[in-house]
């Protein structure tokens, strides 16, 4: 089998799916060389970044298989999958039926065995991707203690670190997925998002994060929180790479039938890549809600950059509908006040035992078991009375179905009278906001959004621009986000040369 003898001429850093496949086709790179590069990078940097919980012990063997498949396809004219040979890290809540665990970052699930791959992993493998390992996260999606658990911390990996500013917030819960992509530990990763878990870490770590409409991507085989809000999406360095992944993982699934059947009708014929248009901003009606998303920034670097970016949007042909308002926005932005947190905890209490009891083997089978494990193993889980108050609150919920139903109805009302009404009355293609403050607007309605790197503040901390829309509006969001990305090219890879990175 004749393959590239070395990959020294290939620019590994910031490599895109298209560049990798081009190098494969030109015999300048093998999948094994690419996997070796990422594994070596993980070995070098993960002790600092704490972004990867475990690597796939079969990663190199899978890369060799991919190289053999590509060689045979060349000889026989065979067709390869759209992600063939692309290494992918998946969040440690996304089930893989292999030698790796699926633990939500907790020792409570170490040793558990899934019955089969999650649907998204099944689709990735079918597309030819190489599952490189499991990315760290805010343990149990931070639900074990929403107010006290640090962003990006889990017992198994430790504290995730922002690769741009070591003392900065990596956000969560898909912290490891975003850190890994930003620091070039992998080409592509998968995260999950219930409230902020894709958008926030991507914003804070200068990555592109695509939060799909709830149900557009199957959640089967993924540790759940809430069927109303959970979604799975790609985290990459470019909008294009996110869209290449979305095309492979979106679609109906009998294992998540109700949600995926409802949302698969949004998938356009020909997929999403057709909306990667350099002039994607032209003619788009973009809503600007200054209060509180812009006004709260005052005269900061982020605020100034946002104004410059608005000018770029106009220059690229977008129609800005400025000074809009969302009804009930103060309540929407306070998840404790709106009832969102209470509903999420109630959903989690019912969903987690169902998930645990579907496992082939698990040391815990209920939320009560998890709480007990944490109490018995404080040295492993580093648990104290504050660090599982979320679990304890969820477990104490008994007989409050009517209250939860009332909260859900109220959240639906907030969506209809707020974001939906603003979008529809102004005939908007997207709402554009700086940073992460608008996240609850999307979360409570199961709406999609894409965050794109937009710059860095005085300390070097990244920030993004968020394009969000109504259910099924991914084509318009992709076109606008791609147009913005191509016009600004704001993302820069992190540097590990500053004194901050060597002070220890």
TrEMBL record:
Coiled coil: none annotated. InterPro entries: Amidase_dom, AS_sf. Residues 34-440 form the Amidase domain. Signal peptide: none annotated. SUPFAM superfamilies: Amidase signature (AS) enzymes. This is Probable amidase At4g34880.
């Amino acid at each position: 089998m004749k393959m590239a003898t070395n990959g020294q001429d290939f620019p590994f850093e910031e490599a895109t799916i298209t560049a990798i496949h081009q190098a494969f086709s030109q015999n300048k790179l093998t999948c094994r060389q690419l996997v070796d590069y990422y594994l070596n990078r993980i070995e070098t940097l993960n002790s600092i970044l704490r972004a990867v919980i475990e690597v796939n012990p079969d990663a190199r063997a899978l890369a060799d298989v991919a190289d053999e498949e590509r060689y045979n396809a060349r000889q026989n004219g065979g067709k390869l999958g759209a992600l063939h040979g692309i290494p992918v890290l998946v969040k440690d809540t996304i089930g893989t039926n292999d030698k790796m665990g699926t633990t939500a970052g907790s020792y409570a699930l170490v040793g558990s065995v899934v019955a089969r791959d999650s649907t998204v992993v099944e689709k990735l493998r079918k597309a030819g991707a190489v599952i490189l390992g499991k990315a760290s996260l805010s343990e149990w999606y931070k639900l074990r203690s929403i107010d006290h658990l640090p962003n990006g911390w889990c017992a198994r990996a430790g504290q995730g670190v922002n690769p741009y500013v070591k003392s900065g917030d990596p956000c969560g819960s898909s912290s490891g997925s975003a850190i890994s992509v930003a620091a070039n530990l992998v080409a592509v990763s998968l995260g999950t998002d219930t409230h902020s878990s894709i958008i926030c870490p991507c914003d804070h770590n200068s990555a592109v994060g695509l939060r799909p409409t709830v149900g557009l991507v199957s959640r089967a085989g993924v540790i759940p929180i809430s069927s109303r809000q959970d979604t799975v999406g790609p985290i990459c360095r470019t909008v294009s790479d996110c869209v290449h992944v979305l095309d492979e993982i979106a679609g109906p699934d009998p294992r998540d039938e109700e949600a995926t059947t409802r949302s698969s009708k949004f998938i356009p014929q020909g997929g999403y890549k057709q909306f990667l248009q350099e002039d994607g901003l032209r003619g788009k009606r973009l809503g600007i809600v200054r209060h509180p998303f812009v006004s709260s920034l005052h005269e900061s670097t982020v605020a100034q950059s946002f104004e410059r970016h608005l000018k770029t949007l106009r220059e690229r042909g977008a129609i800005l509908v400025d000074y809009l308002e969302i009804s009930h926005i103060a309540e929407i932005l306070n998840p404790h006040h709106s009832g969102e947190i209470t509903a999420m905890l109630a959903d989690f209490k019912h969903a987690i035992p169902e998930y645990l009891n579907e496992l082939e083997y698990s040391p815990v089978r209920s939320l009560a078991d998890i709480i007990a494990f944490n109490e018995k193993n404080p040295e492993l889980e580093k648990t104290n009375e504050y660090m599982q108050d979320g679990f304890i609150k969820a477990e104490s919920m008994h007989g409050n179905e009517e209250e939860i139903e009332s909260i859900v109805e109220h959240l639906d009302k907030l969506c209809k009278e707020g974001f939906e009404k603003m979008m529809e009355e102004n005939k908007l293609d997207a709402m554009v906001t700086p940073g992460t403050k608008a996240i609850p607007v999307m979360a409570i309605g199961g709406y999609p959004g894409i965050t794109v790197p937009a710059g860095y503040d005085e300390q070097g901390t990244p920030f993004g621009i968020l394009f969000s829309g109504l259910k099924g509006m991914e084509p318009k969001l992709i076109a606008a986000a791609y147009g913005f990305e191509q016009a600004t090219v704001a993302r820069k890879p992190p540097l590990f040369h500053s004194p901050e990175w060597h002070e220890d």
